[in-house]
What does this fold into?
Amino acid sequence: MESATCKRELVIEVPEEAVAREREQITAQYARVARIPGFRPGHAPRSLVSKRFREEIRSEVAQTLIPRYFEGRIRAQNLVIAGEPRFQDLHFEEGEALRAKASFEVYPEIQLKEDHRGVEVEGEPLTVSEAEVDEAVERTRQQNATFEVIEDRPAGDEDYVMVGYKGLDLANSDVEAIEVREGLIQIGGRGTVTEFTENLRGTRAGDIREFEVIYPEAFPNQRLRGRRIRYRVEVQGVKRKVLPALDDELAKSVSDFSTLGEFRNQVRLDLERAKQRRLDTALRQKLLDKIIAEYDFPVPDSLVEGQLRRRVERAMTGLASQGVDVEAAGIDWRRVGEDMRGDAERDVRGSLILDRIAETEKIEVSEESIDEAVRELAEAGHEPPAVLKTRLTREDGLARLKSNIRRQKALDLIYHSAKITQPSGAQGSTRGEEPVQS
It folds into this structure.
């Protein structure tokens, strides 16, 4: 055994008598269904079946007995294994005991060093500036803008040009053409490619422009990165954005309030609540990081690898949601995984500590809590709760969800009893059930 790690090894030995009994049972199962030329199904001599299916029978005997005896040894030694065991060095000879070496990992034993209540940590003040309120109100104003058709002049800066276009890759004619039948391009807009701005400025409905764009290797859209495209653009019309006035009428049209002042107050409250949630999440992580720093114990590699896979999968899903072709992006995901390994190990270490705290505090998770979590996940994924719960049950995801809820409850316990100090050096206070306040 390697005491400094979670790795363990056991030699599993199955007595020859047990091997013989298992071989007889499996051979009998084969004999009942075996199809051997010259014999009706189930009537071939046992000795012939044993000889004809020798390797298959040996394999089933080993695959049945070694895990069974391994589990017995694990129970006898009160070990809790992490991940799946690996069996090797198989010794399987006629008339002898069946032997194999099992390599596996166990969960570390964690002795809680001190009371996890009353942890001291510095919080951040909750502040929302007038500028932040202005920005939020302006976003609402922009979202409620209308577009007015322009007929008495050509397109100028900040105007929007309605277009249809087709783009051909000049370096590779086999690549499918880029085609948009109805698009809206802002002249000089922040996200508008320079060549589109230069060639569409001054156009009117019915105009046609042809030009080339050479996209840089660092272009945000992976699909266009590094390509040389020739476009043929037909202008369908020109529009300008008309913003509503920043007054009481805007407040009435976008909310239940009668005045702009009331609407701004609600915007401020919404911003404060959103920022409070972010501060609470950051504070919980800060508390957990502080607790993690107090412990030094080996972490099972299998758990780290599992967490690493989940982190990489989330990164890939995030890119895909932004329209990036993950397979064609040319990202070295192995390198990405290695960069994430430290964070993955920290995640696992934190989870193990929270599990130990939950065990000490006798924290339980009710079926109602699980069902509520499933409903929230289903709503976020636009999926019926019953369908999601069935899938989670089938994929063993329900057990993981229960573990996550239990850990969150343990972290909530730490959070609600924490002593928060303010950056200004003001005296900290013991937390009750109230959220972090400045």
